């Protein structure tokens, strides 16, 4: 909220809802968003292994922060709105974190069950089990199931 | 509490609803309402992002391969459209706050145009998917119950931005044919092209995930079990982008509503709340796309 020197308008300005942002600020934020978008694409041309997705998400988060702070005006608002946003993100994070931990904790169980089923099906087809080589071009092998 | 004024005098402006005492209370209520709604939207999309995260962490190769069917260039254009429309939306809010009706209307129109541009690109993308049998469910050429003639793994470069006929390498065609012929029905087993008892390495050695190729994979590099999972990428792709597109459509409807109200001189520095809160919604739509773009189109 802007403070003007005239005391007679003091109350009116405290109640003033409008807070137009400077054009330079809005266009500046837009410029940075474009820069980061180009960076996101450019980052895929360099091989950083598993770090690629971390970098992509980091850039996305920076873009998101710019949009939230300036376009969505959070920097100048009552911190309550930021809290609402952060809380929702925290719950999504909790959801994702626990789901991922859970998934990977039980993956060995899933794999061993699958293994059992594969062995059972192989035994049913009456074929011996050679060592596992998962060559894609092995079209000519095995007793056909149909 | 306060005396109710029967006539609309300065203390009770026309835009102030009767259940509010002051314009600020009305404005704050609207803002809180919209922010809480945005929180629910984040949670809704969050569910889909969790599905993405779980699936991708279990089958990174599927994602490394399947994203090549998407066009990152079209996704990039869409990103530009949405970010630009976010700028014009912020400028629209600014114009409303400064009681500038002309600029407000121009900015609302430009924001709407950004949405239209996004939809056009989306239509091209989805149309191309439909044409190449990369649609949902059994219409997808990677689905075990697919009954069409397109060969999995056969595609021209990076998806939809090429229109040259597909030139499948003989090896790819042979592999694809084998996979197609032997798996007409849904089975938990890998395609019979796999030697029975020949378990996919990822079954025997779960820590294979750590050695996933860094670059995009070609279809031939996938294990048969992975090939069965490729169509899942497209389900996730269509769910996420589809739900997002519905939100863009709703946003465009809201933009038209704002335009009609703006033309009727509804907005000024005293009352610009609807522009402000529709702006918040539109920025959220942009935010979601900011995350969707790298996660779906830029997987390397």
Number of helices of chain A: 4
Radius of gyration of chain B: 25 Å
Helix content of chain A: 55-70%
Note the overall shape of chain B.
elongated
Assembly of the depicted chains: heterodimer
Number of strands of chain A: 0
Please identify the top-level CATH class of the domain at 23-151 and 228-297 in chain B.
Mainly Alpha
Could you please say which CATH topology of the domain at 23-151 and 228-297 in chain B applies here? Four Helix Bundle (Hemerythrin (Met), subunit A)
Largest sheet of chain B: none
The average pLDDT value of chain B, as a whole number, equals: 80
Biggest interface reads: A-B, 80 and 83 residues
Order of helices and strands of chain A: HHHH
What's the architecture of the domain at 23-151 and 228-297 in chain B in CATH terms? Up-down Bundle
Strand content of chain B is under 5%
Terminal Cα span of chain A:
76 Å
- The separation of the N and C termini of chain B measures 63 Å
How is the main sheet of chain A built? none
Q: Which regions of chain A have little confidence, pLDDT < 50, spanning 5+ residues?
A: 1-7, 130-146
Strand composition percent of chain A: under 5%
């Amino acid at each position: 909220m802007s403070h003007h020197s005239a005391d007679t308008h003091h109350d009116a300005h405290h109640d003033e809802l409008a807070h137009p942002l400077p054009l330079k600020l809005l266009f500046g934020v837009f410029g940075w968003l474009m820069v980061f978008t180009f960076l996101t694409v450019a980052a895929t041309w360099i091989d950083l292994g598993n770090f690629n997705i971390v970098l992509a998400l980091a850039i996305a988060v920076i873009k998101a922060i710019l949009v939230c702070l300036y376009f969505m005006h959070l920097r100048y608002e009552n911190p309550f709105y930021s809290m609402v946003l952060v809380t929702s993100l925290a719950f999504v994070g909790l959801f994702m974190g626990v789901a991922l931990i859970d998934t990977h904790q039980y993956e060995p169980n899933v794999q061993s069950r699958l293994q059992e089923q594969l062995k059972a099906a192989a035994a049913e087809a009456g074929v011996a089990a050679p060592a596992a080589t998962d060559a894609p071009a092995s079209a000519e092998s095995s007793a056909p199931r149909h | 509490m306060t005396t109710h004024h029967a006539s609309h005098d300065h203390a009770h402006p026309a835009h102030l609803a009767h259940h509010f005492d002051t314009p600020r209370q009305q404005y704050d209520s609207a803002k809180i309402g919209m922010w809480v709604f945005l929180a629910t939207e984040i949670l809704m999309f969050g569910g889909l992002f969790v599905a993405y995260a779980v699936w991708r962490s279990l089958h990174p190769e599927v994602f490394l391969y399947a994203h090549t069917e998407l066009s990152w260039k079209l996704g990039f254009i869409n990103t530009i459209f949405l970010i630009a429309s976010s700028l014009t939306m912020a400028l629209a809010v600014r114009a409303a706050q400064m009681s500038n009706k002309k600029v407000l209307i121009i900015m609302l129109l430009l924001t709407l145009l950004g949405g239209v541009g996004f939809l056009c690109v989306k239509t091209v993308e989805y149309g191309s998917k439909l044409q190449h049998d990369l649609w949902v469910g059994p219409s997808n050429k990677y689905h075990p119950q697919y009954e069409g003639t397109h060969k999995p793994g056969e595609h021209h470069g990076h998806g939809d931005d090429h229109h040259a006929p597909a030139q499948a390498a003989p090896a790819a065609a042979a592999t694809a044919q084998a996979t197609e012929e032997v798996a007409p029905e849904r089975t938990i087993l890998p395609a019979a092209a796999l030697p029975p008892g020949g378990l996919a390495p990822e079954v025997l050695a779960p820590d294979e995930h750590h050695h996933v190729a860094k670059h995009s994979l070609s279809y031939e590099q996938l294990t048969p079990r992975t090939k069965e999972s490729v169509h899942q990428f497209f389900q996730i792709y269509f769910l996420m982008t589809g739900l997002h597109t519905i939100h863009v459509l709703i946003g465009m409807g809201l933009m038209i509503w704002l335009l009609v109200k703006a033309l009727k001189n509804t907005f000024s520095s005293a009352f610009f709340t609807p522009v402000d809160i529709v702006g918040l919604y539109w920025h959220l739509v942009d935010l979601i796309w900011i995350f969707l773009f790298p996660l779906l189109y830029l997987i390397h």
